[in-house]
Write a structure and sequence with these properties.
The structure is a homodimer. In chain A, the strands form three sheets. Chain A has an eight-stranded mixed beta sheet with strand order 2-9-8-7-6-3-4-5, sandwiched between helices. Helix content of chain A is 43%, strand content 13%. Chain A starts with 8 loop residues before the first helix and ends in a 5-residue tail after the last helix. Chain A folds into two domains: 172 residues, Aspartate Aminotransferase, domain 1, CATH 3.90.1150; 241 residues, Aspartate Aminotransferase, domain 2. By secondary structure, chain A is of the alpha/beta class. At the A-B interface, helix 4, helix 5, helix 9 and helix 10 of A face helix 4, helix 5, helix 9 and helix 10 of B.
Chain lengths: 443, 443
C-alpha cells in the first residue's frame, strides 16, 4: 500500500476517478444499512431465548417475595448478590433497578442539581458547574450535560485512559468541576481500558470540589472479544483506600448481556451513597420490575454462567470485528489517511480520518445508503475539533451487510481524503502537514 | 345499636371492661396481618397468569420492531393505541412507559422544577411554589411535594370531588400555586368520583399561574366494584374545550390490572405536552421495556378484554369490601363513633373516627398485630388536623384474615372512642361536641 501523501497529483486524480465510479455503482444499489448505534444483533438477542420463560409461572423470590406485587425498592436480594459479585462490590453497595442505566445516571445528576450529592454541600444547580468529558466518548453522557447546561470540558483519551495530568490539574483548582464521565473498560468508542495507574489517580486525586463525583459507566464490564479479558482495577476499593469512599458511582446493565431494551440496570457505590439514593428513589417509585429481575436470576443462576454467556456473545461479535478490521487494513492500511482502534472488547471501533474529513465521509456514506454515527457525536456538543473521529458500530448488521457497508465506507474515506489532499495542494501544502502532525494517534 | 354519646358513664365503663378483655384475647393470638397498602392479592395477580408466556418467543411488534432491542421511546404503537382507547385520548396524546406511574409524575415535577412545564414560563424551582392537595389523599403524591419542598395546601374532598369554590378562589389569586393532585375516580382513599361539574370547573377555572397544571392520577379508571361503573368526564377534552389544552397530565397504569410491580405506566396529555416530554425523556432513557408492553398486548389483545379482566378483579374484591362494610355496620353502625365510605370502586374504604382517635386506633391495632396505614398518612405532611381519618385497604389479605383484622379494628375503634368520651366527660363535655360538629362527614 502506498502513502497517499507521497502520490503525485495526477495519480491521485486518476484514483479519484476510478473510486468515484465505484461509489456511483454503490449508489445504484440503493442500500439502506444502519450502523449508527451500538445495538446487539438478533443472533445475540437469541442467546437469551428462554429468559422470560425461565420464570415458569413461579414468581416467588428466595425470601418469599411475590415478584408480581409492589415493593423491593433496591432490587431482589438474589439480583443484588449476583451483580455485586460480578461488579466486585458488596450486596449492600448496589441497587438493581429497571431497564436503563442511563436513567440511573440521568436521575442521579438531576437529584444532585436539586439537592447536591451528599446532603452537606450545596445543590449542584445553585451555580454553573462543569463536567470533564474524556473524548471521544459517549454521546448520551454528553447529552445529559448539555440538557442540564453543565459545561463540558473535553479531556483527551490516551491508550490507558483519560489524560490524567490534565484531569488532576483541572480538578485541583476549579471548584465548579463536579464530575467526570468514565467508560473505564472497552470505552465507547475508543476501546480503551483504564490502566491501574489511571484508576488509582482518579481515586486519589485532590479535588477542589469536596462533592466531586466519578460517573463510572462500566457498560462493557464483561464484554470481552478475546479469550484473554483486559483487567480493570476496582475503583470503589481504590476510592475507599484513598479515603474518598463516596467519590464514585458505578453503573452497569445487562442491556448487552440479555436484552438491550429489557435488561436490568444497576448502580453501585458506598453504603452511605446507596442508602441516600434508595431514600430518594423511594419518592420516585415503589420498586423496579422484580419479575424481570427474577427471570434473569432463574436464567443465569450464577455469575459463572453470565461469564460463559458473554463468551457466546464474543463468538457472534468477533467475526464482525475481524471483518471490519481486515477490510480497513486491506483497503486503507499503509495509505496514511486514517487510523483506527483494534479493541479487545466492547462495541465499537474508533476511526480517525485525516483532519477535516469525518463529516464528509459520514455524509457520503449516508448519500449511498449507509448510516453511520453522526460525525462529531463522540465529542461534547457534537463538535469534534479536528473533524476526524468516526464511531464504527459493527455489532448490529449481518456479516454480508457489514461487508458491503465497510467497502463503501473505505471507499468514501479514500475519496474524501484524496479530495482533501488535492484541495490543500491547490491552496498550500503546509496547512495539511501541520494538521497531520498534530493529529492524536489512537492506534 | 346505641349512640355511645347517649350512654351513661357507668355503662361505658362496663363496656370498656368487656371490650378490653376481648382485645387482650386478640393480643394473645399473636397476629401478624398487614393492611397498610393497597396491594392486589395473589388471587388477583393470578388473573394475569400467562401474561409473560403470551410472548411465546415471538418478540416482534406489529411494525416489525424487535422488542428485545433498544428504542421505542414513546411506547409501542399498539400499546399506545390500546391505552389511548381505554383513557379516551388519541395515540399521539399518550406515552406508555415503564412499570411506575409514580415515576412519571415524580419525573415530570422534577423537570418542571428545573425547566418549567411549557418552555415559556420560568422553572418552577426558581421560587417557592404550592400544590393543592385534596385530602384525604394519596401519601405518595404528598411525599413528592414534601421531598421537593413544594408547599401543600389541604383542600377538603366533598362527595363529588375537591371543594371547587375553595380551589377556584385560591388559584385565581395565587400565582405560586402551580398544581393540584387529583385522583378523579374512586379516589384514594375516599372512593369519591369527580362529578362532571367538578371536572368542567377544573378545566375552565382561571388560574393566576399561566403554567398551572392538573396532575390527574387516574389510577382506578377501570376498577369498578359494581357492575354499574361510575362515569368520569374526559378531562383532556374538557381542557381543550375550555381553551386550556395543555393544563392536564393524565396518569394511569396496569399496576392493579396485571402486575403491581411489573405492569405498564402511562401519561397522557396534549400533543405539545407529550412531544416536549418525549424529548426530555429521550435524554433520560433509550426506551421502556417493550417486551413487557408486547406481552400485555398479546395477553389482552383489545380494550374490551381489559374491561372483562377488570370484572374478574371485581369478583375477587367485592366479597372483601362487603365483608369489611358488613362488619363495620354490625359492629359500629348507629353508635355514632365513626363514619365510613361505601365505595363503588377503587382500593380503599375511608374511615373516620371521632376527632382525636385515629392515631390511637392505629396504634392499638398495631399492638395486637394488625398493621394499618399510618394515621395521618392521607393528609399533607402526614398530619390529619382532626386525627380522625384511617385508610382501610381490604384488597390484600385473604377473607379469613381480613375478618379477624376488621374484628380487631372495630374493637379498637370502640375502645378508643369510649376512652375518649370518658376523658372528655372528665374534663369538659363541650370540647368533644365542638369537635364533633366541625367534623367533615364523608359518607
Amino acid at each position: 500500500m502506498v502513502d497517499f501523501l507521497t502520490l503525485d497529483t495526477d495519480t491521485l486524480r486518476h484514483m479519484q476517478k476510478q473510486l468515484t465510479l465505484k461509489y456511483e455503482n454503490f449508489k445504484q444499489k440503493k442500500l439502506k444499512l444502519n450502523m449508527s448505534r451500538g445495538k446487539p444483533c438478533s443472533e445475540q438477542l437469541d442467546l437469551s431465548s428462554g429468559l422470560l420463560e425461565s420464570l415458569n409461572r413461579n414468581y416467588q423470590a428466595e425470601d418469599g417475595t411475590d415478584c408480581r406485587n409492589y415493593g423491593g425498592l433496591g432490587g431482589l436480594p438474589e439480583a443484588r448478590r449476583l451483580f455485586a459479585e460480578l461488579l466486585e462490590v458488596q450486596p449492600d453497595e448496589i441497587i438493581v433497578h429497571g431497564n436503563s442505566s442511563l436513567a440511573l445516571m440521568h436521575d442521579l445528576i438531576t437529584r444532585a442539581l436539586i439537592f447536591g450529592v451528599d446532603g452537606q454541600e450545596a445543590p449542584w444547580g445553585q451555580q454553573p458547574i462543569k463536567f470533564l468529558c474524556p473524548s471521544p466518548g459517549y454521546d448520551r453522557h454528553f447529552a445529559i450535560c448539555e440538557f442540564y447546561n453543565i459545561e463540558m470540558i473535553t479531556i483527551p483519551i490516551r491508550e490507558d485512559g483519560p489524560d490524567m495530568d490534565l484531569v488532576e490539574k483541572l480538578v485541583a483548582t476549579d471548584e465548579t468541576i463536579k464530575g467526570i464521565w468514565c467508560i473505564p473498560k472497552y470505552s465507547n468508542p475508543t476501546g480503551v481500558t483504564y490502566s491501574d495507574q489511571v484508576v488509582t489517580r482518579l481515586a486519589r486525586m485532590k479535588t477542589k470540589a469536596p462533592d466531586f463525583r466519578i460517573f463510572w459507566d462500566n457498560a462493557y464490564a464483561w464484554h470481552d472479544l478475546s479469550s484473554d479479558p483486559v483487567p480493570l482495577k476496582n475503583i470503589l476499593t481504590a476510592c475507599k483506600e484513598a479515603n474518598h469512599p463516596d467519590r464514585v458511582y458505578i453503573f452497569s446493565s445487562t442491556s448487552k448481556i440479555t436484552y438491550a431494551g429489557a435488561g436490568l440496570a444497576m448502580v453501585a457505590s458506598s453504603v452511605p451513597n446507596i442508602n441516600r439514593l434508595k431514600k430518594q428513589m423511594g419518592i420516585q417509585t415503589i420498586g423496579p420490575n422484580k419479575l424481570n429481575q427474577l427471570a434473569h436470576i432463574r436464567f443465569f443462576k450464577n455469575a459463572q454462567n453470565v461469564r460463559l454467556h458473554m463468551k457466546k456473545h464474543a463468538a457472534v461479535l468477533r467475526p464482525k470485528f475481524d471483518l471490519v478490521l481486515n477490510l480497513l487494513e486491506t483497503e486503507l492500511g499503509g495509505k496514511k489517511i486514517a487510523s483506527w482502534s483494534r479493541p479487545q472488547g466492547g462495541y465499537f471501533i474508533s476511526f480517525n480520518t485525516l483532519p477535516g474529513c469525518a463529516k464528509k465521509v459520514v455524509q457520503m456514506a449516508a448519500d449511498a445508503g449507509v448510516e453511520l454515527t453522526k460525525a462529531g457525536a463522540t465529542f461534547p456538543y457534537g463538535i469534534d475539533p479536528n473533524d476526524e473521529n468516526i464511531r464504527i458500530a459493527p455489532t448490529y448488521p449481518p456479516l454480508a451487510e457489514l461487508k458491503t457497508a465497510m467497502e463503501l465506507f473505505t471507499l468514501c474515506v479514500q475519496l474524501v481524503s484524496i479530495e482533501n489532499i488535492l484541495r490543500s495542494r491547490e491552496h498550500s501544502s503546509t496547512e495539511l502537514l501541520l494538521h497531520e502532525e498534530s493529529r492524536v494517534q489512537i492506534v
